[in-house]
Write a structure and sequence with these properties.
It contains six helices and eight strands; from the N terminus they run ααβββαββββαααβ. It has 244 residues and is of the alpha+beta class.
Length: 244
């Protein structure tokens, strides 16, 4: 079991991003979701590939009952995370869980087989594929910053994490991922990418301090499901009447 867990933690230099072109994406969407693509735009992604899909309104498909007014996002997960399908299931359930609790986030769409995800082979590797309803708005990085906006962001994240205290899923119980805070000691093998000596010293100091002060007490610390990657590229904003 330990060996399997170790294999699911990112190693330096590993190539895990999906390899697919736009034509391949169109064929995938049509085959899995019955959607004829009118417009296709690749969105930013780190390890995964994400595409905004606008469907052709002239092609009527009886398999699509509820049409998303703003289009969809096709998310093709990297080959490493795709090995743990229970995490994919947990992510889908988290989105549906939050939507029913008045948190605006993407809604997973069922494919023609009635499933919220499927596993597809692309360039010889297996990837979990999902379709999500597109949430309109602007990335936080692209709007003017203000104290009020940052306050509202803090409010939103606190509300999100408070609601997630009531969320449990077996797929998250034993999950290990390089982005988790518990994995800070593993960052030592990635520090070769830091060329600036001062920044390297700082990184080494933080890692050593974490190993000394935090690791021995990990079992005493509270754990739970949170949004672990809140940043200006991961938050969508839209101005409401009244300035909120």
């Amino acid at each position: 079991m330990a060996d399997r867990k170790a294999s699911l933690v990112l190693e330096p230099g590993a190539m895990i991003r999906p390899v697919i072109d736009h034509e391949g994406v169109k064929l995938l969407v049509e085959r899995l979701y019955g959607i004829s693509v009118l417009e296709l735009t690749e969105l930013a992604g780190y390890d995964d590939k994400n595409y905004r899909i606008t469907e052709d309104p002239n092609v009527k498909n009886p398999l699509i009952v509820n049409h998303s007014p703003h289009g969809y996002v096709l998310k093709i997960m990297n080959s490493m995370d795709s090995q743990n399908l229970s995490v994919v299931e947990a992510q889908n359930e988290i989105m549906n869980f939050l939507i029913t609790r008045s948190v605006r986030c993407p809604r997973p769409v069922r494919n023609i087989f009635g499933h919220l995800h499927s596993v597809e082979t692309l360039s010889g590797r297996q990837h979990a594929v999902r379709l999500l309803e597109y949430v309109p708005g602007e990335l936080l990085k692209d709007v003017p910053s203000s104290d009020a906006l940052f306050y509202q962001l803090g409010e939103f994240i606190a509300n999100l994490d408070n609601k997630l205290q009531n969320f449990n899923h077996s797929g998250l119980a034993g999950r290990e991922h390089i982005w988790m805070l518990t994995k800070v000691p593993d960052l030592e093998k990635f520090k070769y990418v830091i060329k600036d000596a001062e920044k390297l010293d700082l990184a080494e100091e933080v890692i050593e301090e974490f190993k000394y002060a935090v690791v021995p007490r990990l079992d005493e610390l509270e754990k739970g499901v949170i949004h672990g990657d809140v940043n200006e590229m991961n938050i969508i904003v839209e101005r409401k009447p009244g300035g909120r």
